[in-house]
UniProtKB/TrEMBL annotation:
It comes from Aromia moschata. GO terms for biological process: protein insertion into ER membrane. It comes from the Eukaryota. Residues 1-30 form the signal peptide. It is found in: Membrane. This is Protein Asterix. PANTHER family: CGI-140 (PTHR13193), PAT COMPLEX SUBUNIT ASTERIX (PTHR13193:SF0).
Amino acid sequence: MIFSMCGLMMRLKWCAWVALYCSCISFANSRISDDTKQILSSFMLSISAIVMSYLQNPQPMTPPWAPSANY
């Protein structure tokens, strides 16, 4: 959820994708007795972070080590 909030507030695309990845891992490791509301809210928050960051800036995500095209 921390990655989701960072992706949502700071518009960091990589943070939003890491949040979705962590949500998937959390779902895979969950048990039947675990709280499904928390897992569902984690998924929804990470998906909303991805959607909001791409609505703000629809350019593809570039890795930090890639050369920039700004001359």
